[in-house]
Amino acid sequence: MSDPKDSFAAISHELKEKNVSLVAVSKTKPGTMIEDIYKKGQLDFGENYVQELVEKQEQLPEDIRWHFIGHLQRNKVKYIAPFVHLIQSVDSEKLLKEINKQALKCNRQIDCLLQLHIAEEDTKTGLDVAEFDALLPNLSQYTNIRIKGLMGISTLTGDQQQVRKEFKKLKTLFDRGNQSELIQNSWSVISMGMSADYKMAIEEGSTMVRIGSLLFGAR
Ligand SMILES: *Cc1c(COP(=O)(O)O)cnc(C)c1O
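Above: query sequence and pyridoxal-5'-phosphate SMILES. Below: predicted holo structure tokens.
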């Protein structure tokens, strides 16, 4: 199972059984590797650099659903707005405003997740709980954005207890959003879990995992 060439079939089978969707994180990997698993039926791919995403989108099959999962600068939203499938990394209201503006220009609705800061490290971006609570009542004013749920990145640590705690926190915040009348019925996605911790993330309620190195090899 350590050979990435064989891992796609096993992982996608495992996730289908659990009703969890797979975003194949293809950052830094060439288009040929993307096409390999696209041909096996994978449509959702995740990238975290705008320029790389735009180049790949131009070269690769049109029905690929591109997820943006990295830190997004406001002045770059316009490059991905025409085609992006899901922006998973909305970490400020200013960014939300800009996405809405560009979505309007493209005459489309853009699906987004709010990225919550759940890790111990200060370096990982995302909204803290107070910012999340402050943002919730404002979401409905962004007419060309549909907020589908939350995304979180756990602390990079061998401490399983710590990681589990962080996943539980994201699930709790998701449930809070679920109970809010301010959120439309599109609220359905908890994006948590990567190569090292996706099994635990699923135990804690993940509906979408973002897996890179297990599928494509180390970066
Ligand atoms: C790189 C990345 C992943 C995938 O990480 P792996 O450990 O290679 O599975 C998932 N989510 C985000 C936000 C990433 O930047």
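Residues 149 and 199 are 20 Å apart (CA to CA).
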